[in-house]
Design a protein that fits this description.
With 110 residues, the protein is mainly beta. It has 1 helix and 7 strands, in the order H-E-E-E-E-E-E-E. The longest helix is centred in the N-terminal third of the chain and has 7 residues.
Length: 110
């Protein structure tokens, strides 16, 4: 636009498919102000690297993980490192041992 504001039309011309839908298991979308939100589901062992569908360009503000199913009690999942392209999870049982879980994740950044 002439006033310097980027419109949704301009953004999708630069990055095809930049306005996604939440109806898919793994995806991403741009929010107003150029914020990039991404989400996914993953089944992996503790210490696994999860790659973002789209790399962030400047910063990852936060990553949130939630275990999808807990058939017994007290399982934990958290991130222990992240870059602009991926993050590493730690997944533990109630005794502190590493394990494999299915979990949902969301990330937000620019």
């Amino acid at each position: 636009a002439a006033d310097g504001n980027v419109t949704e039309y301009q953004m999708t011309r630069v990055i095809p498919g930049s306005v996604g839908t939440f109806a898919i298991a793994n995806g991403w979308t741009f929010l107003p102000g150029g914020i990039l939100m991404q989400w996914g589901t993953n089944t992996s062992a503790s210490g696994s690297t999860i790659t973002f569908p789209v790399a962030y360009t400047s910063a990852v503000f936060g990553i949130q993980c939630t275990i999808a199913q807990n058939t017994t009690n007290r399982h934990f999942v958290y991130t222990r490192s992240n870059t602009l392209t991926n993050f590493v999870t730690t997944q533990l049982d109630s005794g502190g041992s590493g394990e494999t879980n299915t979990f949902f994740w969301t990330a937000i950044g620019i």
